[in-house]
Design goal:
Strand order of the largest sheet: 2-1-3-4
Radius of gyration: 18 Å
Helix content: 40-55%
Order of helices and strands: HEHEHHHEEHH
Number of strands: 4
Largest sheet: 4 strands, mixed
Length: 175
């Protein structure tokens, strides 16, 4: 439903926007992709989650086969979670699935609950970790919606100045 000054679907779910971003990334990627080998990408993945499947599909569509971490089958320990959340640059609470029954049952929304207790809860109940999380080098991103992975790809494909041009181009085309 693009064409109005503000897309009613929101820019991240707009097919027209997504098409322009993909085109811009492919074009800029041919011109500016780092000469170094493709960095390793890791996705903290839950195959039952449509957002997680979508982010994985976008990575593969761009020629990237990430390391897949099934954090439900092999839960992360507290130290691994700390390192991952540090890369995300987000508070622990923001990477938790607050609508999960376990979150409510454990009272994790209570202000008196510490980050250490929340990390322990995620380590014990991995379903509490929001997904998908995609890591590239020292950067990580919670990719909800899955199109957020395009921002991470843009940071690898092109310089910050070119990223600004791509985003500006995409917004001007969709508005």
């Amino acid at each position: 439903m693009c064409g109005a000054s503000i897309c009613t679907q929101g820019w991240t779910s707009c097919a027209r926007f997504d098409g322009w971003v993909r085109l811009a990334l492919r074009t800029l990627g041919r011109m500016t992709k780092h000469s170094s080998p493709t960095p390793s990408f890791t996705i903290y993945h839950n195959a039952r989650c449509s957002n997680s499947r979508g982010a994985l599909a976008l990575l593969r569509e761009h020629g990237i086969e990430p390391q897949i971490v099934d954090y439900i089958a092999e839960p992360l320990n507290v130290e691994q979670l700390k390192a991952l959340i540090e890369k995300l640059g987000m508070p622990v609470r923001d990477v938790m699935r607050v609508k999960e029954a376990t979150y409510q049952e454990l009272g994790l929304g209570n202000e008196s609950v510490t980050d250490a207790q929340r990390l322990e809860a995620i380590a014990t109940h991995p379903v509490l970790l929001n997904r998908p999380i995609v890591v590239c080098g020292q950067r990580a991103m919670l990719c909800r919606p899955p199109e957020q992975v395009l921002q991470l790809l843009a940071s690898w494909y092109c310089s910050p100045h070119l990223q600004t041009i791509v985003i500006t181009l995409c917004f001007s085309v969709t508005s």
